DNA sequence: AAAGAAGCCAACCGCCCTTAT
DNA sequence: AATAAGGGCGGTTGGCTTCTT
């Protein structure tokens, strides 16, 4: 009944990853691609939970990740997206090529939050702190005249006016009506029922040039490594990363990444995991 | 130079939805 | 249909680094 357990908790290592562990994980994924994470620790010779391997890969080892602080443009985009999506970091990260949800979440909590508060803006509601209670009908973005929210202003009519970011039921005042609207949280798990989410996640959102999400020439399809992607594509992307960060030479040869690929041996019974 | 405070971020935790059996 | 694991996600934590006194 059901599936086999992800990993036996006994003997599973926790805490920071060592260079050796990273090497093993990279080595394994380079050879076999991203397959069933449950099988990865065993096959790669790691005493880690599959979940831990997945996180390590997606948040740190992935070759297409950008490094360093978010640029001003990226930060601006995060703020704009957060105003619409709330704390749905994975959705926000999907719009920022090379950035992870964890990275964006951390950046938000450590930098952006404080910045917005300093500017007198509630980082949760994106409304001016001093106006939230006293004058809820006033357009918060016009009131502040903040460049940060120019994009939001332009689209207030385009998207549902009940756009809020609170995780609880929220009270929204529309611009043309004093009617108080009790709306369900935007963070409804079923995005198909959410017209705002549908719009944001639709192609038309990206095609709407006035959002100015990315400069011309950027390609969203470049982001991420789908499981179905030809492994050779991202394998090539890995070249610089592997050489710079791990001092790994002769990328592309049979003998890559320090230890020989022959070190990764798939038991017959386990080969089915990675098809 | 040392100690404590604050900042930062990688990694873990736990929940929820999906999917395999 | 029921059950249980897989996978994804957001929230939180803990330890390392940097700053301040």
From TrEMBL:
Coiled coil: none annotated. Residues 163-179 have a biased composition (Low complexity). GO terms for biological process: carboxylic acid biosynthetic process; regulation of DNA-templated transcription. GO terms for molecular function: transcription cis-regulatory region binding. Keywords: DNA-binding, Nucleus, Repeat, Transcription, Transcription regulation. Gene3D superfamilies: Homeodomain-like (1.10.10.60). Residues 9-61, 62-112 form the Myb-like domain. Residues 163-188 are annotated as: Disordered. PROSITE patterns: HTH_MYB, MYB_LIKE. It comes from the Eukaryota. Residues 9-61, 62-116 form the HTH myb-type domain. GO terms for cellular component: nucleus. Pfam families: Myb_DNA-binding. Its main location: nucleus. It is found in: Nucleus. This is Uncharacterized protein. It comes from Rhamnella rubrinervis.
